UniProtKB/TrEMBL annotation:
Belongs to the purine nucleoside phosphorylase YfiH/LACC1 family. It comes from Henriciella algicola. This is Purine nucleoside phosphorylase. InterPro entries: Cu_polyphenol_OxRdtase, Cu_polyphenol_OxRdtase_sf, Cytotoxic_necrot_fac-like_cat. One of its GO terms (molecular function) is hydrolase activity. Keywords: Hydrolase, Metal-binding, Transferase, Zinc. SUPFAM superfamilies: CNF1/YfiH-like putative cysteine hydrolases (SSF64438). NCBIfam families: peptidoglycan editing factor PgeF (TIGR00726). The keyword Lipid biosynthesis does not apply. It catalyses: S-methyl-5'-thioadenosine + phosphate = 5-(methylsulfanyl)-alpha-D-ribose 1-phosphate + adenine; inosine + phosphate = alpha-D-ribose 1-phosphate + hypoxanthine; adenosine + phosphate = alpha-D-ribose 1-phosphate + adenine; adenosine + H2O + H(+) = inosine + NH4(+). It comes from the Bacteria.
Length: 245
């Protein structure tokens, strides 16, 4: 059986500078492309891919689309928010800066997956779509372990009533994940929202890292924090999983 390597990489240990300091893996950011590629090479070397282009990232669009990764796809990244593979040496890299990264593994079937679950994608069913794609590839959800990575914490995630209404229209069970804030504002627990969806999907085990990307400034990039500071852009951290050959 193939071994599995994975990691939730924060913002430390890279080569980027300024607001991207330092392990920015975001291909779509305005960071220097050479710095991003150096950072991606650092992570791909740690995970153990043969080439940096064997660490795949999608053009993430907050969708419910999960795809099967069978080979490196180069600079023309497919638009999707979930990836699945059963091929050793192909690393799946989800990019986030507050959204929820989820890594999946079925060791028995040697199938892995990863998804980017922002609130839109989570509500639309990206976690469930990734699980379904894993099962199409030979996995069994009763054997899938999932890990929910660092994301924005509830106290940092202030939303309005229209946001709450939209979530509850698609997930009526999520009312207790909104804590009242000032005025008509709420604080939403997206981490538990994603965890609950994974549990409802019938997986073998769901783990949660429990780190607030907005609060832990030295450890993680955060789009919400970028907005608070009025910065022009932000870096992206990577959550990576790979089957060893």
């Amino acid at each position: 059986m193939n071994g599995i390597k994975h990691g939730f990489f924060g913002r430390q240990g890279g080569t980027s500078e300024g607001i991207y300091d330092s392990l920015n893996l975001g291909i779509g950011s305005d960071d220097k492309p050479k710095a991003v590629m150096r950072n991606r090479r650092l992570v791909s070397d740690l995970i153990g891919t043969r080439e940096v282009d064997h660490m795949l990232s999608c053009y993430q669009v907050h969708s419910d689309r999960a795809i099967l990764a069978t080979m490196p796809w180069g600079p023309d990244r497919p638009q999707a928010d979930g990836m699945v593979t059963n091929l050793p040496g192909i690393a799946l890299c989800i990019l986030t800066a507050d959204c929820v990264p989820v890594l999946f593994a079925d060791r028995k079937a040697s199938v892995i997956g990863a998804c980017h679950a922002g609130w839109k994608g989570a509500l639309a069913g990206i976690c469930e779509a990734t699980i379904a794609k894993m099962e199409e590839t030979g996995a069994n959800r009763k054997d899938i372990y999932a890990a929910v990575g660092p994301c924005i914490g509830q106290k940092s995630y202030e939303v309005g009533p229209e946001f709450r209404d939209e979530i509850l229209s698609g997930a009526p069970w999520a009312g207790n994940l909104f804590h009242p804030g000032e005025g008509d504002r709420y604080h939403f627990n997206i981490e538990t929202f994603v965890k609950n969806r994974l549990v409802k999907a019938g997986l073998a085990f769901v783990d949660v890292i429990g780190h607030d990307t907005c609060e832990l400034e030295d450890m993680y990039f955060s789009n919400r924090r970028r907005n608070h500071f009025g910065e022009p852009d932000y870096g992206r951290q990577g959550s990576v999983i790979m089957l060893e050959g």
